[in-house]
């Protein structure tokens, strides 16, 4: 993102924007625009290559998020399915990776390693705010048009962007602290608020989503905002912590091999600590017994052991945990919206991003198909919903083979599209609209 706001820099930013409008780092653009002398030609040639390599690593990580969503949406994820072991790890965690990458894009649009100031900051506000509104609108329309059993993240994605606007001036350290506080604290605050105003047990858990029908009245609009921020599948008040984590990464020098290594090591350590502590809290410190006590009447009614009942019913904890006992906050299962779920999923996201940044140094040719999917990930995401609608309507066929063909088809499409057309069609549309909005900034 341009921090000076000149028209030429705006055009350069548009060319490199991804799903959320990720722009080239400022140091790379300045290197491209600075007149070259004979003595510094070699130095100047290295900077664009370095920047492109960094963007490839981010695009590869983004492709893992998108293809992971395909695996979760089309592959078998039922707990009792023989092939679910290969697909359940992507369930929920791919969406968290997508949110962390959204934070990286937001940081890059607002100055990259150095937060934008002055006119550059105002342009960043408009650019990111316009994308937020576009994502909100696109998500609402898709929920209205598509009849597929998929929780569409784009509406919530717009909410994440809106919540990030007051924090664009923060640097990496402050954003990292804010991310840690939000990942741990926001699920606790959400549970307290919901236990008072929106109490629910496991058997009363609604799978909320967002649609245009909620906007037909003031009461419906209030429900829309409540779902978006607090009670929905990807509640923004909880998920903003994942975005803050990504913004902190975007403020770092992701071209640094040292940073990539520490992200990989730190992410793995965070995931181990989060999932390990959750396991201890449940199995060694009495958390599971409290959950079993709250579920015993339902298990007795179904005639199954209470531990089996919990295992088979966890899919109902989608977005936020029940409020009938605080022991639900000890879970680390995907989509439960607990501190352990958030910390573990963010740890895995850091591991994937750091690993992608390290792999790009081994060989870019092998990674280019994945990078192509990441570069047009909004188009691929919407495209896979279109294909699900055309092939199956509201009754998809969840098989490993179908997931395989969705992934392979996306890779082939992305490579061919980038080869002949470059920027994805939806990416180009979003970039054009948001760039037009920023031109009005003075």
From TrEMBL:
Tell whether Transcription is among the UniProt keywords: no
Every copy of the Heparan-alpha-glucosaminide N-acetyltransferase catalytic domain together lies at 54-256
- Tell me which residues make up the DUF418 domain: 353-430
Q: Does the keyword Ribosomal protein apply?
A: no
One of its Pfam families is: DUF418
Per UniProt, which keywords does this protein have? Membrane, Transmembrane, Transmembrane helix
Q: Where is this region: Disordered?
A: 1-52
Transmembrane regions listed in the UniProt entry:
94-117, 175-197, 224-250, 262-282, 342-359, 371-392, 398-417
Listed InterPro entries: Bact_Transport_Assoc (IPR052529), DUF418 (IPR007349), HGSNAT_cat (IPR012429)
* Full protein name: DUF418 domain-containing protein
Native source species = Saccharopolyspora montiporae
